[in-house]
Design brief:
2 domains, 6 helices, mainly alpha
């Protein structure tokens, strides 16, 4: 399994991907302990039809808390978020959750683009620019999260 400590953004995206996989192929967890454990968690949490595992929600909450902290303390981070925020607001407006956080919007964007690429669908140049900015923001967050974890 992806390590939350090593890259928290990749960890969340991995969990979302596994959730979708287990919803599409519930019998494929047999024989794989990690998948079986995650499938059991999904059943126990009642999210086999939709939603996210509590461990994914917790990791997202940790990222959002770090995001708020960095907005107060890191000028380069503030510059990145101010640059990408208008595009994130457009993205949020097109979802069923327009009040989602900027961090969640970045993750949703990257996840949706990953799904489009798997379907071999074209990604517009404008979207590629926003993906680059969102990736930069998540990379900054993940690196800071990692640095904070290794200091403990």
């Amino acid at each position: 399994m992806k390590s939350k400590r090593d890259n928290i953004a990749e960890y969340i995206l991995y969990l979302w991907q596994i959730e979708d996989y287990l919803r599409a192929f519930p019998d494929k967890a047999d024989g794989n302990q990690e998948l079986q454990d995650l499938s059991n968690m999904m059943h126990n949490e009642g999210i086999m039809d939709g939603g996210h595992l509590q461990i994914a929600k917790n990791a997202l909450q940790e990222m959002e808390e770090l995001h708020e902290e960095l907005l107060d303390t890191e000028a380069p981070y503030r510059a990145v978020i101010l640059h990408v925020r208008p595009s994130l607001n457009l993205l949020k407006a097109k979802t069923d959750n327009p009040t989602m956080s900027d961090v969640e919007a970045c993750l949703v964007l990257l996840y949706q683009v990953m799904l489009l690429r798997l379907q071999k669908r074209e990604i517009s140049e404008d979207t590629e620019v926003v993906v680059k900015d969102a990736t930069q923001l998540l990379r900054f967050l993940s690196k800071t999260y990692y640095d904070n974890q290794t200091e403990i």
